[in-house]
Amino acid sequence: MANQVNYFELLNKRRFDSNTSIIPDKIYFTIEDGVNDPAIIGTAGNFVSITGLPKARKSTIIGAMIASFLIAKPVYTFSLKIHKDKTKIAIFDTEQGEYDFKRNITAIEKITGYTTKEVFTFLDAFLLREDDPHNILMLINEYLKHNPETGIVVIDGLLDLIDNMNDEGASKRLIRTIKRWAKKHDILIITVLHLGKKDNSSIGHIGSASDRYAQSTLTVEKTKEGTTTISGKYLRSARDFEQIEIMWNNDFKKYTQIKP
């Protein structure tokens, strides 16, 4: 016989008491755009969605975020925080092959000045391109069980964690799983999701569910001039921030930020 839920006990666990002192959020992700206080993008127990059309350089932006975590200072105004008990970052890449992923690691090395060995001291990376949605979920869950020192988990991309992006029930269950992971393990999860080509909206029911429940949704766009912009689409906890724009610098052989 399945375990029965005691809903009276569960109800009391869910009760909010206004006299209870609230522990401040563990802030993992801010944007330091020089306007008053930093814009709070992601905190412990939440997830952030990075959206954009295919080939919009979303992985380049993710690399910059990882670099910021490794050097503990802003990169293109992104600032990902290390906390004393959360000193590692992990990425689960479901799209790229080894060659393209290695190029992104090389870009991180250029930004940070670290060697490959130094990068992987603080970064755990997994390539799951060949795995099906069920196995990807199980592998991420297994990682989280055994790596309590990890503070930020990047899932690039979210569509590969579900068989049918237009299955409303499955989409909601996936988002609930991500929210449960974030709360249980006291982490921030950053997901990467494609936009639809026709209307630039988050794709499928999974996109709608992500937009609804993400703490922040950021959009990455490639401009006609060849630059890349990052802006806030939905911000639950943050003020609006100045649009970020980067471009490839041939002199330095890396992307640099265009100052407003």
Task: Describe how the helices and strands are arranged.
Blueprint: H1 7-14, E1 27-31, E2 39-43, E3 46-52, H2 58-71, E4 78-80, E5 88-93, H3 98-112, H4 116-122, E6 123-127, H5 133-146, E7 150-156, H6 168-184, E8 188-194, H7 204-213, E9 216-222, E10 228-235, E11 244-249, E12 254-257
Parallel strand pairs: 3-8, 3-9, 5-6, 5-7, 7-8
Antiparallel strand pairs: 1-2, 1-4, 9-10, 10-11, 11-12
Helix pairs in contact: 2-3, 6-7
Could you describe the 3D structure shown?
With 260 residues, this protein is α/β, with parallel strands linked by helices. It has one domain (24-257): 3-Layer(aba) Sandwich (Rossmann fold), CATH 3.40.50. Helices cover 33% and strands 27% of the residues. The protein contains seven helices and twelve strands. It has helices at residues 7-14, 58-71, 98-112, 116-122, 133-146, 168-184, 204-213; strands at 27-31, 39-43, 46-52, 78-80, 88-93, 123-127, 150-156, 188-194, 216-222, 228-235, 244-249, 254-257. The strands form two sheets. Strands 6-5-7-8-3-9-10-11-12 form a nine-stranded mixed β-sheet, with helices on both faces. Strands 2-1-4 form a three-stranded antiparallel β-sheet. A hairpin with a 4-residue loop joins β11 (244-249) and β12. α2 packs across α3 (98-112) and α6 (168-184) packs parallel to α7 (204-213). The termini are far apart.
